[in-house]
Amino acid sequence: MKTKNRIIFYFFYIFIFIFTNNLILSKKKNISKSNADFISKVRYIISKAEKKFFYNLPDNKRNKFIEQFWASRDTDSSTEENEFKEEYLHRILIANRKFSSGREGWLTDRGKTYILLGPPRHISDYPNGNFNNRNPFEIWHYPETYLYFIDYRNLGDYTVHYTSLTHQAMVHNAFIEAKRNNIGMSGLFNYKYKIINKKNKSFIVFTFNTDKLEFKKNNNKMETNFEIVIKVRDKDYINVFAYNKTHKFSIDLSNSNTKIPENFQIKIPLNLIKGKYLFQTSVKKNKDKTNFQNQIFKIK
To answer: Three-class SS of residue 181?
Structure first.
């Protein structure tokens, strides 16, 4: 009996695996070559939510998604050029020129690092290795972290090497911050947001950490302001909600007992029916300090 149940389980597992695999393949077959090239090129910066949303779109809506994908990352919308897109694609070209070895340079570990973190402040190059490591290796130094790259097969294809779990976590966090902060071209401030569904009403709540915001003194107050931009799109990539407003936050210093809060929140009402939506948000301090986040949320 146990053997029979095991066989049934295996057949069921194989069926699920084949069904799921075919479903993924069928989705990819519906992707045009240009769209597939786009997904490949932005692999280092596209979020899982964006990628999932892109695959579920009708093919005739994907060009609009690509247009908005780059626009949401534009560091200065007042110019015709998209500085972020140009810098990202330029880094791919540089990576191909510098790190290609049996495969395109932008697909190597050094290429990925160069694209996300930019050129290192300094490179310690050991083409003949040293007494600890006989393989050629490099150490890339950045302000907040460093990376080891080792050529294990002596073919010019250097692989990232972590000295410890702490070092791996430090590098991983640097990559996350780079993706979040326009690959190193924006400021240090950041924000979080969530959707609140309450009594048939929905709100988007932004949270800012005051430690990472720049304030200016105005009489007895410390003030800061920033522009919040929100675009919400449904499953057909139709824009169903838009918001653009400059908010001000101030701290009154006239009272000596005033304590600066660790963070503050801004709540914005949404007028959306039930369903899943792609939220594209950005917060701008000025033209060279812009952060953005794109996520999928469900309105209940």
So the answer is: coil
What does the angle CA 154 – CA 158 – CA 163 come to, to the nearest 5 degrees?
115
The H or E element containing residue 253 is none
Q: Please check the confidence at residue 6 and state whether its pLDDT lies above 60.
A: no
- For tokens 């309450």, name the residue: 198
Measured distance CA(18)–CA(7) in Å, rounded? 17
Amino acid at site 96: N
Which domains, ranges and CATH numbers included, belong to the chain? 83-180 (no CATH), 191-299 (2.60.40)
Q: Count CB neighbours of 40 within 10 A.
A: 10
d(CA 68, CA 280): 9
Instruction: Tell me the per-residue pLDDT of 80-129, one tens digit each, with 9 for 90 and over.
Output: 888 889 999 999 999 999 999 888 999 999 999 999 999 999 999 888 87
Other Cβ atoms closer than 10 A to 39: 17
Beta bridge partners of 252: 221
What is residue 101's DSSP assignment? S
- The SS3 assignment for 239 reads strand
The model's pLDDT over 189-198, given as tens digits with 9 standing for 90+, comes to 678 889 998 8
Interatomic CA distance for residues 146 and 200, integer angstroms: 49
Assign 65 to helix, strand or coil: helix
**SS3 category, 96:** helix
pLDDT digits (tens, 9 = 90+) for 250-284: 888 777 777 778 888 999 999 898 888 999 888 88
Q: Could you give the CA distance from residue 59 to residue 32 in angstroms, rounded to a whole number?
A: 8
User: Interior CA angle at 149 toward 147 and 153, to 5°?
Assistant: 165
The DSSP 8-state label assigned to residue 238 in this structure reads -
Q: Which residue has the tokens 């080792």?
A: 150
Residue 31's closest CA among 40, 43, 19? 40
Per-chain mean pLDDT for the chain: 82
